[in-house]
Amino acid sequence: MPAPEPVSLTTLARAQGPRGELALRERRSPGTAPVHELVVNGAFAMDSAEVASERRLAELVAERGRLGRVVVGGLGLGYTAAALLDAGVQRLEVVELEPDLVAWARAGLTEQLGRVAADPRCTLHTADVVSWLEEAATGWADAVLLDVDNGPDFLIHPDNARLYSAPLLARALALLVPGGLLAVWCQGRTPELQQALTRLGPTEEVVVPVRRGRHAIGYAIYLTTAPAIVQP
Ligand SMILES: C[S@@+](CC[C@H](N)C(=O)[O-])C[C@H]1O[C@@H](n2cnc3c(N)ncnc32)[C@H](O)[C@@H]1O
């Protein structure tokens, strides 16, 4: 058998910030579409080879008819945001910590990021989603979607632990209209988070089975419905 042709890896953009290295890379293999990779805080955060769960996060909200005003925490490679736009969201607020990533999206460094940034329904905010949620007005959003870490047990930044604390989860729910949805993406089932959310409102666990190479993975998404009145 001939040796497989080498895979090329190109750095599209790179920045060194207070939280470490941020990089956007493109991986090419013969005969396949290019794959984009995002490095955050010096560590591999995600790639575009398999984005079913990132899109599913958006689809679950769309299927439940919550496509008015929606907040997404964590831009990443833009797949959750793009799926919301594809589903017909009316207003989308995307909150992203890394200013360079927002700039790369506005510059259209990948087709997907450029499409999200250019959509007139979407506003990109450069902010820590924890602070953003603390300062936001209450009672206006149809859904708040959080995908800033691999989940509470695998944080991209240590400070993000606060996001999964009971007061911050309650604060996120307080942004919602009654019946609105808080959706949290996790790298696997996370019973502690499920319990914390269940104390705040009816909570559904959706496991999204995904194959990455030879590995079968079950990502988990938690969906909490805002009760009529939430004490932030
Ligand atoms: C795994 S990616 C999100 C993937 C995204 N759902 C998609 O479809 O491509 C996580 C993103 O959250 C951002 N992030 C991490 N901590 C954050 C915070 N505290 N506030 C806002 N964004 C944050 C990272 O910079 C990164 O862009």
TrEMBL record:
Organism: Auraticoccus cholistanensis
GO biological process, one term: polyamine biosynthetic process
Ranges in coiled-coil conformation: none
Protein name, UniProt field: Spermidine synthase
SUPFAM superfamilies per record: S-adenosyl-L-methionine-dependent methyltransferases
Keywords: Polyamine biosynthesis
